[in-house]
C-alpha cells in the first residue's frame, strides 16, 4: 500500500566464491503504454503519374509506435560491496533491505496496451562476465474506500448501488411489461473494464490516445417472459479479483461499465441495451440509512473513481484475502534494459478479494472530525 515501508531479503546461494564488484538492488515503480498508431502519409511518386486525377500524389496508411512512461520510484541500493577483494565468499548470503513506497502510487495493473508495475531488481556485478540479474514483482494496492464517494451507495434503476468490491455480487433486477407480440429470449449482462491509454507518437510527437475494453465477467439468462405478459428477472454477477477503478495515473485510467442487453424473439437487431457505471473499490460500502433529498436528483451517467485514502486500522485490520488478478500475467514486455537477461520474471498482480458475505459484515465507519486524518 502507498506510504508503507517494504522489507525484504535478497538470498544468494553461492556454491563457490564469486568474483563480484558489488550486489545492488534497484526498486522501480513505473507505468508504461505502447501500441501502434496509424497516420495517412502523402508523397509524390512520378511512376504513378498516369492520370489527371492522382498526378503522382500517393496516400498511404502508415503505423508508428506510440508510447508513454510515468515513473513513481527508481531507487538503487548497494547491498554488498566487494571493496578491494571483489570476491563474494561461498555459502548462503542473506542481504536485507527496506524502502518506503511513495504515497502517490497508483495500483498495479496489467492491460492489453500497457501496465503499471512495481518490481525489485537484484544484480551481481561481475567483472569480465555477464551480470547475474533477478527481477521480482510485487503488488501495490491503494486503499479506495467506496463510502467516501457520493452516489456510490445510492440505488439506480436495476441495481442496489454503484460501488462494489471484488468478491461481491452485483444483483440486477429487471421488471418487464412486455406488450409486444414477441417473447423475451435472452438477457445478457457483462461487467466491462474500460481502459484509456495515452502516450506520444514517435513519428509526429503528438499526444495519442487508445481506448480498449475487455469483459470481466458475463452471465446469459434465458427469459421465460412471454408476449403480452409482465414479469421480473433477477440476475447475479460476481465481481472477480480486478484492479479498483483509478484515475491517478496520467497515462492509464480504468473505469467499469455494466452492460445489459435484452433480446426479443424472432427479429434481427431487435435488442434493447443500456449501460450503468460501476465503481470498484477496496473497502465495501457499509449499509446505513440514506436520507432522501428534498428534491429528486437525477442519477449520474458517470461516477468518478475514489481518491486513494488511508484505511483506519481500527476498522480495516487484516485484509480478507488476496487473489490473483482475473486476467493473470501481463503480455506487454517489461520496459527495462535488463529484462532479457533477468531470471524468474513473470508476475500477476494480486488484489483484495472478499469472500462471500464478508463485504457486508465490516463495521460502520467512524464519523470524521477535524482532527481525524485519513
TrEMBL record:
Arrestin C-terminal-like domain residues: 149-285
Q: Which domain of life is it from?
A: Eukaryota
One GO BP on record is: protein transport
List cellular component terms (GO): cytoplasm
User: Which residue windows are transmembrane per the record?
Assistant: none
The family annotation for this protein states: Belongs to the arrestin family.
Name of the molecule in the record: Arrestin C-terminal-like domain-containing protein
**Species this chain originates from:** Acrobeloides nanus
Amino acid at each position: 500500500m502507498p506510504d508503507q515501508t517494504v522489507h525484504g531479503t535478497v538470498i544468494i546461494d553461492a556454491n563457490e566464491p564469486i568474483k563480484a564488484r558489488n550486489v545492488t538492488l534497484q526498486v522501480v515503480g513505473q507505468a508504461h503504454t505502447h501500441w501502434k498508431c496509424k497516420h495517412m502519409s502523402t508523397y509524390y511518386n512520378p511512376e504513378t503519374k498516369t492520370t489527371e486525377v492522382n498526378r503522382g500524389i500517393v496516400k498511404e496508411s502508415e503505423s508508428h509506435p506510440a508510447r508513454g512512461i510515468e515513473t513513481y520510484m527508481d531507487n538503487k541500493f548497494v547491498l554488498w560491496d566487494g571493496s578491494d577483494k571483489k570476491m563474494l565468499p561461498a555459502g548462503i548470503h542473506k542481504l536485507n533491505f527496506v524502502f518506503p513506497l511513495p504515497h502517490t502510487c497508483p495500483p498495479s495493473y496489467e492491460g492489453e496496451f500497457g501496465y503499471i508495475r512495481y518490481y525489485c531488481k537484484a544484480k551481481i556485478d561481475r567483472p569480465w562476465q555477464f551480470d547475474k540479474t533477478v527481477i521480482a514483482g510485487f503488488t501495490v494496492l491503494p486503499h479506495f474506500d467506496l463510502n467516501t464517494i457520493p452516489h456510490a451507495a445510492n440505488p439506480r434503476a436495476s441495481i442496489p448501488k454503484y460501488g462494489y468490491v471484488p468478491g461481491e455480487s452485483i444483483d440486477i433486477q429487471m421488471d418487464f411489461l412486455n406488450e409486444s407480440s414477441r417473447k423475451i429470449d435472452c438477457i445478457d449482462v457483462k461487467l466491462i473494464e474500460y481502459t484509456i491509454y495515452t502516450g506520444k507518437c514517435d513519428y509526429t510527437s503528438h499526444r495519442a490516445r487508445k481506448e480498449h475494453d475487455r469483459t470481466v465477467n458475463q452471465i446469459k439468462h434465458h427469459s421465460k417472459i412471454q408476449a403480452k405478459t409482465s414479469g421480473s428477472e433477477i440476475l447475479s454477477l460476481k465481481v472477480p479479483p480486478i484492479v479498483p477503478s483509478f484515475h491517478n495515473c496520467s497515462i492509464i485510467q480504468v473505469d467499469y461499465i455494466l452492460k445489459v442487453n435484452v433480446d426479443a424473439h424472432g427479429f434481427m437487431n431487435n435488442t434493447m441495451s443500456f449501460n450503468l457505471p460501476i465503481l470498484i473499490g477496496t473497502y465495501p460500502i457499509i449499509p446505513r440509512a440514506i436520507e432522501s433529498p428534498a428534491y429528486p436528483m437525477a442519477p449520474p451517467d458517470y461516477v468518478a473513481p475514489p481518491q486513494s485514502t488511508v484505511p483506519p486500522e481500527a476498522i480495516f485490520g487484516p485484509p480478507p484475502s488476496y487473489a490473483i488478478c482475473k486476467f493473470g500475467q501481463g503480455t506487454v514486455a517489461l520496459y527495462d534494459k535488463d529484462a532479457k537477461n533477468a531470471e524468474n520474471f513473470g508476475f500477476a498482480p494480486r488484489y483484495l478479494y472478499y469472500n462471500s458475505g464478508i463485504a457486508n459484515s465490516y463495521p460502520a465507519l467512524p464519523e470524521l472530525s477535524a482532527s481525524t486524518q485519513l
